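ok trying this again, last paste got cut off
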Amino acid sequence: MPPVMSAADFDVLYQRLQRTVAWGPADRRGALNHITPAQVLTAASEVRLGRTAPLGAVIETEVTLDNPDPCVHQMTSPSGDQADRTGLSFAMDRLAMNIHGNADSHIDALCHVIYRALLYNNVSANTITPSGASEMSINVARNGIVGRGVLLDVPRLSGRPWLEPGEHVTADDLTRAEAAQKVAVGEGDLLFVRVGHRHRRTALGPWDAANARAGFHPTALEFMVERRVAALGSDGNNDTAPSLVDGVEFPVHVLAVNAIGLHLLDYLQFHDLVPLCEQAGRWSFLCVIAPLQLLRGTGSPVNPIAIL
């Protein structure tokens, strides 16, 4: 398979992956169905060090090349030097931010990707209205997403700190990372794949990630289906830019969210997790993902917690 797919080859892949969905036309949870109570109990046994690591990045409020419309953080109370000297005062603030972008860590709901006027499981795009999503909002995950997390570090395979923008991760890369790290991705796992996007950004500064970034090759989604992965996250956007499919932007989002109902987590960070995994000598852990309860939201800011 050449690095850049034709639209026709992509369509064949889309239909093949879509046919693997086996939960019926009423399903609204997608790949989260792979997580069972028994698997959550087993995932709890991953906790041995009693250490935690955040996977969400710091929310930024400054304009950068990859974040032209950043979060607005406003204080709604007087500053501390105006506090009541004889009684009680409160410090109060508010946030306004885009859920989807190229800098802030977030999770995509299954209503986020509209392809050929349809959402996951052939739900009509008409369910997205000016008031939000009436089907498959992020509130599908209101109970949290809890399971065994697995981190695969692809640049580590070649002794590099990061993949360069435009490079892509294949299913073979994931298999080789499993072997090198002595871990196997299994049913119901929350798979996190490090491409080094955050490391590169920290070292070299922000760049126009909307047009140049490392990510997955679309065919890598066959790995997710075969292993029955429940959620997928990366320190980049998951999609490679420029697109690896002629005429289709964000093909990985189309395949993951729209075709197979796989919640995606974009622009995470693994600075804190990697040293803990190295210390523990293993790359699996209990993971808790807790999106905000946004009844009609297409996603949510997110800070997953890895527990080793």
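PB: full thing came through this time. Residues 152 and 177 are 6 Å apart (CA to CA).
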